[in-house]
Amino acid sequence: MRIAESISRLGTETAFAVAARAAAHADSGGKVYPFHLGDLNMPTSQNVQEAAIKAMRDGKTGYCPPAGIAPLRDALAQDTNAKRGTAYSMENVSVQPGGKPVISKFLMALMNPGDEVLCPNPGFPIYESQIEFLGGKVLPYPIIPAGDYFTFDLDALEKRITPKTKLLIINDYHNPTGAELSAAERERMAAIANRHNLSVLLDEAYFETHYDDKATSLVSLPGMLERSVLLYTFSKKFAMTGWRLGAAIGPKEVIDIFNKINVNYESCTCQFVQWAGVEGLTGDQSGAKKIVDTLRERRDVAVDILNGTPGVTCIKPNASFYLYPDVTDLMDRKGFGDDYDAFAEDVLTKTGVSFCTRLHFGRPLPGETRRYIRLAFSGIDASDIREGLGKLKAYAS
Ligand code: PLP
């Protein structure tokens, strides 16, 4: 068969290749410390599980409206209004099988071939993949360290804008660095979007995986509600990655297009899973709170050990479940230079610690001099974090 030319532009999440390498290490008898995958090793709350089982038993197993069931759309609108100060109604919500489909459907709805799309780098690799697959042009903008936090390089972002730049992807509460905009930066980001009339995908997958205070959303700033589509997901907050439940939330005229795309793609998101989502949003919240408390403890354990590891420095993120330590000095001292693959392989073989590197999050930008790895602490208990990173520390000492 002759494969379509467009497939050559389709990227992937290469983290799955790291998982294969870790599995091979486990098969050969080694213990693996799985810092590579952004999945959670915690169960979905009992009440959410029960709601899905009840819905299934109640016969909620057929097709449902492409936009999603009304109680879920309504619950999502109310929840978003309460946490982000918006005034959405259910007409602004299109339920999706996960957060990820919001990325491609946003681009299908708003991007013409040749349009330029501003996109964070390092960043979630599916942005670049989908922009290029659908015929757009990626304009990467840097996420950079600024002392004890990571931030968005807004000077670089603004310099990249041309008359062809139509779309802006923002991942506030960022994968892989945990970066979030400060209040002043959020104002400036909104001003840039308004001034250049950009349509915005606001990926807030980690909005509620937030540790030391409350998250605020760019969508509540003047002009942003009208030009933004929010990516909402149940995956992280409710430990529901495999259930595939998320939503696009935005202006009705764009959400109507999402619904039309739903008709063409999935028809609808699994109905009993949607009923579980209603329970997640409106029922007992102790399960979701426990997830964040557990993640906070893991973050603190991991950051302390990493910052005591020779050749490694690690910023403590206030959001997401990822760490993005600078390992330049360690790689240099061990003689790896910028050979991330050889470094990751050596660490895996000698310590069992498995991780993604900077290369999994977009093509490195010109002038980048520091080297980073990404450690996810969502799928590994605190005791294994201590043990695994203890071995990494011994390797580095
Ligand atoms: N956006 C970001 C930044 C992510 O890290 C992820 C998952 O890792 C997603 C979106 C999509 O997640 P899901 O499709 O499970 O909702």
Task: Describe the structure concisely for a colleague.
The chain has helices spanning 15-27, 46-57, 70-84, 100-110, 125-133, 154-160, 183-195, 224-227, 252-265, 271-282, 286-307, 328-333, 340-351, 382-396; strands spanning 33-34, 93-96, 116-121, 137-145, 150-152, 165-170, 199-203, 228-233, 246-249, 322-323, 353-354, 356-357, 373-376. By secondary structure, the protein is of the alpha/beta class.
Description:
The protein is of the alpha/beta class. Helices cover 42% and strands 14% of the residues. The chain contains 14 helices and 13 strands. It has helices spanning 15-27, 46-57, 70-84, 100-110, 125-133, 154-160, 183-195, 224-227, 252-265, 271-282, 286-307, 328-333, 340-351, 382-396, and strands spanning 33-34, 93-96, 116-121, 137-145, 150-152, 165-170, 199-203, 228-233, 246-249, 322-323, 353-354, 356-357, 373-376. The strands form three sheets. The protein has an eight-stranded mixed beta sheet with strand order 2-9-8-7-6-3-4-5, with helices on both faces. It has a three-stranded antiparallel beta sheet with strand order 10-13-12, covered by helices on one side. The protein has a two-stranded parallel sheet with strand order 1-11. Strand 6, helix 7 and strand 7 (199-203) form a beta-alpha-beta unit. Helix 2 (46-57) runs antiparallel to helix 10 (271-282), helix 3 (70-84) packs parallel to helix 10 (271-282) and helix 11 (286-307) packs parallel to helix 14 (382-396). It is globular and about 55 Å long. The model has no long low-confidence stretch (mean pLDDT 96). Residues 38, 98-100, 124, 171, 175, 203, 205, 233, 235, 241, 246 line the site of pyridoxal-5'-phosphate.
